[in-house]
Design goal:
alpha/beta, 2 domains, five-stranded mixed sheet, 14 helices, 47% helix
C-alpha cells in the first residue's frame, strides 16, 4: 500500500471516530444531564402536586393512590447508587411507567420528556409493570375461594341473574408483528395481537385473567387452553354447590354459571345465548344474559379509556406486552377497589394456582356435558319468564 493511500485511510478513520460515533461514545448525553432541573419528573410533576385533578389526569392515579402504590412497589423497583452515577429514584421510575401506560407514547417520546435514554425507559416499563403485578396480586386479584364466589353471585343477583359467578369475554390487544412469528399472532380482524381473557364481577373488577394467548386463537380455544378453563373442566375452582333459584324450588338445584357470548362453548357452568333469531322464553333469556354480560364489555371499555396504551399499537415484544396488560388490569382493580376497606381477599392465593394439581382430575364426557348444559339453559329460560324470576323491563325490549 502506498504512503498516500495509508494517509488517506488514517484520516478517514479519524473522521469517523470524531464524527459518526460521537453520540455512541457519550456516557450521558448533554441534554439528559439536565434531567434533575428540566426533566418532566423534576419540573412538571412537582408542579402537578399542587393540583390533584391535573395530577390524576397526567398519571390516571390521584396523589393518594400514587403514594399508596409507590409504598407497595418501591422496595422491588429501587436501584442502588454507584460511584459512577446516581440511580433513578423509585418515584421517578413509577412516574415513567405510569405515563407510558396513560398515553401509549413511544419509549423515545417518554425519554425526551423525562430526559433519560430510550433504552432506560424500555427497561423501566418492563420492570415496573412486572413489579405492579407481583406486588398487588395477592390483595387485588386473588383467585376467589368458595366464599368469595358466593359474594360475587350475590352481586349478580342484584342484577337479576342468580347463581352467576362472572361475565367472561376476550379482548385482542394489538401489537407489532413479532419477527419470524408467521401468522400465530394474526387475528380475524387483520391485526397482530395477544388475547386478554377475563372474568369480571358485578363491580367491573377483574377476578380472573389469562393473558398472552396467540391472536389467531378463538375465544373458546383460548379458554380451553387457559389454566382457568382447565380448572373449570376439572372442577377445582371451588365453585359453590348447586343451589335453588329464588322462588323456583320446582326447578331443583341449579349450578353456578359464567356468562359468555357465542364465541364460547355451552357447558354446565358456561351459559351462552341461544343462536339465531328467537322469540318467547329464548329471547327473554338472551336479553337477561346480555344485560349482565355487558359488565365485562364495560370493564374493557373502562380499561382502554383509563390506559390509552390500548389505543395504540404496542411496539414491544409479546412478553413485554403481556407485562403491560397485567399491570393495567391490576391497576384497574387497584383504582376501583375501596382503599378504606380490606382488599378483596385475605387468603393471598396466587392467580396461577388453578393450573397446579389438575392432571389427575376426572373429565366429564362430551355428550353428557352437552345435554346437561342444554337442560341448564332451558331451566334458566323458564325461570326468567316465571313470576319468581321476571323483571319489569324484560318485556319492553
Amino acid at each position: 500500500m502506498s504512503r498516500m493511500r495509508k494517509l488517506a485511510l488514517v484520516l478517514a478513520l479519524d473522521a469517523d471516530e470524531d464524527g459518526g460515533n460521537e453520540h455512541s461514545r457519550l456516557w450521558v448525553h448533554d441534554i439528559n444531564r439536565g434531567r434533575q432541573h428540566y426533566g418532566a419528573f423534576h419540573s412538571l410533576v412537582q408542579e402537578l402536586r399542587f393540583d390533584n385533578a391535573r395530577f390524576a389526569a397526567y398519571f390516571r392515579l390521584d396523589k393518594c393512590q400514587f403514594e399508596a402504590l409507590l409504598r407497595v412497589v418501591a422496595p422491588t423497583i429501587s436501584k442502588q447508587n454507584t460511584i459512577m452515577r446516581q440511580a433513578i429514584s423509585p418515584e421517578e421510575r413509577l412516574s415513567i411507567c405510569l405515563r407510558y401506560l396513560a398515553t401509549g407514547d413511544s419509549f423515545r417520546s417518554i425519554a425526551f420528556s423525562f430526559r433519560v435514554g430510550a433504552s432506560t425507559v424500555a427497561g423501566i416499563v418492563q420492570q415496573v409493570c412486572s413489579a405492579i403485578w407481583d406486588c398487588l396480586l395477592a390483595d387485588y386479584m386473588p383467585v376467589p375461594d368458595t366464599s368469595d364466589w358466593r359474594k360475587i353471585a350475590m352481586g349478580f343477583q342484584k342484577l337479576a341473574f342468580p347463581n352467576c359467578l362472572g361475565a367472561m369475554d376476550g379482548k385482542h390487544v394489538v401489537i407489532e408483528a413479532p419477527p419470524s412469528s408467521g401468522s400465530v399472532y394474526y387475528n380475524y380482524k387483520g391485526t397482530f395481537s395477544i388475547v386478554l381473557l377475563a372474568v369480571v364481577d358485578a363491580r367491573y373488577c377483574f377476578r380472573l385473567v389469562d393473558i398472552g394467548a396467540y391472536g389467531r386463537n378463538s375465544d373458546g380455544g383460548t379458554l380451553s387452553a387457559s389454566a382457568f378453563g382447565t380448572a373449570l373442566r376439572q372442577n377445582t375452582l371451588g365453585i359453590p354447590e348447586d343451589s335453588i333459584l329464588p322462588g323456583a324450588e320446582h326447578l331443583g338445584p341449579m349450578p353456578h354459571v359464567f356468562l359468555a357470548d357465542e364465541a364460547f362453548p355451552l357447558r354446565r357452568n358456561i351459559m351462552r345465548p341461544y343462536p339465531g333469531y328467537n322469540t318467547g322464553e329464548k329471547k327473554v333469556f338472551n336479553t337477561r344474559l346480555c344485560h349482565v354480560r355487558r359488565m365485562v364489555e364495560c370493564a374493557f371499555g373502562i380499561l382502554a379509556s383509563q390506559w390509552r396504551v390500548y389505543r395504540r399499537v404496542l411496539c414491544v415484544s409479546p412478553e413485554v406486552a403481556e407485562n403491560v396488560v397485567k399491570a393495567t388490569c391490576m391497576l384497574h382493580n387497584f383504582i376501583r377497589w375501596d382503599t378504606r376497606t380490606a382488599p378483596m381477599s385475605s387468603t393471598g392465593t396466587s392467580a396461577t394456582e388453578p393450573s397446579q394439581g389438575l392432571q389427575n382430575a376426572p373429565r366429564l364426557g362430551t355428550n353428557n356435558a352437552g345435554r346437561e348444559a342444554v337442560a341448564v339453559r332451558e331451566k334458566f329460560a323458564q325461570y326468567f319468564i316465571s313470576e319468581a324470576g321476571r323483571v319489569h323491563w324484560q318485556d319492553n325490549i
